[in-house]
Amino acid sequence: MSSPTAGAPQEPAAGASSWRSELIVATPTLVVVSVAHAWAWSYGGFPATHWYPGAVGLVLVLAALVAGLRPAIRELPRPLQIALGALALFTAWSLASILWADSQGVAWDGANRTLLYLVMFAIPALSRLDGPRALLVVGAWTIGILVLAVWVLVKLPDAVGPGRAVLGPGLAAPVGYANAEACLWLMAAWPALVLSSRAALPPALRGLFAGGALVLFDVALLSESHGAVIAAGICLVVLLVALPGRVRVLLTLVPVVVGAVLTAPHAIDVSDARRASGAATGELASLATPVLGIAVALAAVVTVAALLERRRPPGPVTIRRMNRAVATTAAAATVLGTVVILAATGNPIDTINDGWDSFKRPTAVAGTGGGSLADFGGARYDYYRVALDVIVDHPVRGVGADNFAQDYAAHGRAGEFPAYVHSIELRTLLHTGAVGGLLLAIALAAALFGASCAARARSRVGAAAAGAAVMVFVHWFVQGSTDWFWEFPALGGAAFAMLGVACGLVPRRDAAKRSRAPRAVRLGGMVAAVVLLVACCASLAAPWTSAIETQRAARVWPIDADAAFRKLHLAADLNPLSSRPALVEGTIALRLDRLEHARDAFTSALERDPRESYATLALGAIASQRGDRTRALVYLRRAAKLNRQDAVTLGALRDVRAGRRIRIPALLRQYELLARSAQR
Predict the structure, then answer these.
(1) Which of 71, 159, 180, 354 is 20–30 Å from 503 (CA)?
(2) What tens digit of pLDDT does each residue of 379-424 get?
(3) Of 129, 191, 61, 147, nearest to 495 (Cα)?
(4) Is 177 helix (H, G, I), strand (E, B) or coil?
(5) Where does the pLDDT of residue 454 fall: very low under 50, low under 70, confident under 90, or very high at 90 and above?
(6) Do the Cβ atoms of 51 and 532 come closer than 8 Å?
């Protein structure tokens, strides 16, 4: 009987090759993994001062890799050629969108983030990883996230206190946003599950991954993310339908599910108790022991089973019988589960209608994004309504990278202030139009096709690595379809890196004989490459250093205001597109009661971003303070039009209309409280 992998490149089992040589070849991709780990430990890499330095470093790594390998485009697999080309064009289009964006500084940051994802995809895709090297990379990333999950479990009791609560509602550390937190753990849980099921891996490693999958699933439950639960169900279907080895995955899933049945109810109860009482520290202390204890037991069981399988591998007849038994059991479980769900929920049409009504009805959402697993509400319906309206108005080229906040402030109804549209698909169409949407769709389709080919063409270790890597991207994309995960490099960067690993495993084509290019052509290519490298580094370094100077100014102004202003002027020079340095300068000047200075700063901010509602409000407040009621009303009416949900602006407008002057210190305190919910 022929094997399904007959004719595929045969790779040695993990551990059979020299790990030292594998490590050297995999080093560029391991650098990508290390950077992604650093971001995961630090707010998901969301702050500009966190992800920009890593981006600059990775651009240099890619340049060194290309210079060392000098991969010929004609030798790359066709899917990889298409994916790299389309993703590069999408990045270029995102950078071009700065030209027509209203908030050009924000667009520059958004386009640079896209450049980062291109680099994180390209490094593993071009690194010529074979099966063992790819397994080393995927395993290293998964184990790194597992270590972080264990650290979170152990440190939970110490993390609760004034200003230190990571629960309430939902686990919100270390990323800072509960839904993103759940996504991070589940992105690592899928490769752990896949790798624990593969016979090519050493038994002890399979046991480690099985126990790790349980820990990651349990920690994800602490976030109480409804979107994560739905995404997990979709990803499980994708895993069992689209990837090979589904029977092995199902067999490995059984002990993991048993462990989850024993631990998940307690994890949910702990999170519920923390949200209800606000001080369930004792409950938090009781969580790590059962979860880690059962995970260790599960690891031991899977290790022993793997040892037995390696000692007495099943024959073809046994495998066929197991496949039939598992298929029958899965079908029966599906039918039984459907019956139970229908019995519990009643009429499915009524359930769908109730869910739709709940989705359309805005409800209060905590700033961390967490909540009960039963919560369906939120404001996403209103986000999507505004986004679709703007897409219709700008269908071809979009409104510019990451330019959503101002449109929602002007047209939203939910009483929230999102900076991002909360959907990867809508984000792409809104910011880059049909052109960007088509380019990204081509890139992802080609990359996923290549990953699927790699999972089937390679045997043993290569197939395991490709399947595990692609599931990281799949979960990020599925859950990110209803959330703002593109803006977290620890999530989006890891997803593109793992997709690059999977797509890069497509077998290379034989190198065709080609004539040596003329010297002038080769020299021109080198010059173009150097110019491109310098341009990419400059595009990343300028906003990064500007953000650093702005951050330093915000810290130093109570001690030395003049030094703070000098830093802000430098920040404005470094990033001539951003209004943020001028906004910070104006706010500091207001706190120091330097009204003339503040007016100049906010005027400068409006020159860079004419739709900046905060600067418009501040200019109205300054005019009111100076007794110029007419000018104050002009500014405040415009501010209310730019941000019609802003209670602070509307209150200031009412005061001026009633003949009262605005008290600037009180206004700043109110706006500071309101702004805390804006970055979501």
Answers:
(1) 180
(2) 888 899 999 999 999 999 999 999 999 999 999 888 778 889 999 9
(3) 191
(4) coil
(5) confident
(6) no
Closest CA to 595 of 567, 612, 575, 619: 619
Q: Is residue 90 part of a domain?
A: no
Chain centre distance of CA 448 = 18
- HSE toward the beta carbon, residue 366, CA cutoff 13 A: 21
Domain that holds residue 277: 138-313+346-379
Domain membership flag for residue 427: no
Find which of 122-136, 156-170, 264-278, 562-576 is predicted with most confidence, using mean pLDDT: 562-576
Burial class (CB in 10 A: 0-12, 13-18, 19+), 336: exposed
Respond yes or no on whether the N-terminal peptide bond of residue 169 is cis (omega within 30° of 0): yes
Q: Residue 583's domain is classified under what CATH number?
A: 1.25.40.10
Tokens of 629: 């009621």
CB 313 within 8 A of CB 203: no
Q: Could you tell me the sign of the dihedral formed by the alpha carbons of 439, 442, 445, 446, in that order?
A: negative
CB 138, CB 461: distance < 8 Å = no
Of 279, 296, 295, 293, nearest in space to 157 by CA: 279
Apex 105 CA angle, 102 and 111, nearest 5:
95
Look at residue 308 and tell me if it is in a domain.
yes
**Helices and strands in the chain, H and E counts:** 26, 0
Give the tens place of pLDDT for each residue, 192-206.
999 999 888 899 999
Whether 589 is covered by a domain: the verdict is yes
For residue 286, the Cα-to-chain-centroid distance in whole angstroms is 30
List pLDDT tens digits, range 1-11. 333 343 444 44
Q: Which string of DSSP letters, residue by residue, matches 179-210?
A: HHHHHHHHHHHHHHHHHHT-TTS-HHHHHHHH
**Number of independent structural domains in the chain:** 2
